[in-house]
Amino acid sequence: MFNNSSFEVLTSNLTNPTLLFFLLGIIAALTKSDLEIPGPSIKFISLYLLFSIGFKGGQELEHSHFTSEIWYSLIFGVVIAAAIPLYTFFLAKDKVGISNAGAIAASYGSVSAVTFVSAVTFLELQSISFGGHMIAVMALMEFPAIVMGFILIMKYEKNSENTIGMKGILKHAVSNGSVLMIMGSLIIGIIADSKQAEGIKPFTTDIFKGFLAIFLLEMGMITVKRFGSFRKHSLFVFLLAIILPLFNGCMVAILSGFVTDQIGNRFIFAILAASASYIAVPAAMR
């Protein structure tokens, strides 16, 4: 039933500054404004976002007492992030091409940090608790999805002159700057001294949403530039964008019951599975 708390969550999401800056980017591109984010700046912002997500996830793991449920949750998150790109890629590759299918597959296998924040906000409004380790699960799910996307593209892209084996593909995927940044930041967050980590908290946390807003401004402008490609595959892409998140979310909502009994954690697992990355994966694929 649609109540006041649901309306508050909806209003909060629709008036989220990051979403509004994304819409501003769309408006700027549609009106052919000369607004432009310099290439080096957007690359720096992309790396910063990956660093912040990874480091905060590592800090959450460092503060957690490792139980069997935490280990199972981390493994379950990695399995989800690796499995979703597989069937998504084969659903899309004949319709949108290998490279696009790989990018789409990685996006749906990965997660959205902003969607995660919205899910946490909803749980807090409902007074439903969840484990702090779920932040680490979110950060860890970025890695296997990106790697899987790279592997699928390099394996099936016939137009490329790629002759390296699977070992070479894995090495290339793992050494990718975006993957290295988020996983390296996660590990550093785990081993870093908590008191020392407080010293960089203003950089890792306080300015995150500001940089995210600028990144989404750029994404809004890029979206308009891709409208032509969207119209080319409009019906398929539209249906995929509606049906796939519903399927992923419902499937994981059921399967997560084998990992945890906590409703808040199961809800977050379902949200992460249903969401798609528009930070880490676009940064890596570009």
Summarize the structure.
With about 290 residues, this protein is an all-alpha fold. The chain has helices spanning about 5-15, 15-30, 40-65, 70-95, 100-110, 115-125, 135-140, 140-155, 165-175, 175-190, 195-200, 200-205, 210-225, 225-230, 235-255, 265-275, 280-285.
Which features does this protein show?
about 290 residues; mainly alpha; about 0% strand
How would you describe this protein?
The radius of gyration is 19 Å and the shape is globular. With 286 residues, it is mainly alpha-helical. The chain is built from 17 helices and no strands. It has helices at residues 4-14, 17-30, 39-63, 68-96, 98-109, 113-125, 133-140, 142-156, 166-174, 177-191, 194-198, 201-206, 208-225, 227-232, 234-255, 263-274, 280-285. Helix content is 79%, strand content 0%. The mean pLDDT is 80.
Q: What separation lies between the terminal Cα atoms?
A: 42 Å
What composes the largest sheet? none
Low-confidence stretches: none
Rg calc = 19 Å
Total beta strand runs: 0
The number of helices is 17
Overall shape: it is globular
Q: What is the helix fraction of residues, given as a range?
A: over 70%
Q: Based on the structure, what is the oligomeric state of the protein chains? A: single chain
Task: Note the run of SSEs as H and E.
Answer: HHHHHHHHHHHHHHHHH
Q: Tell me the structural class.
A: mainly alpha
Calculate the mean pLDDT score and round it.
80
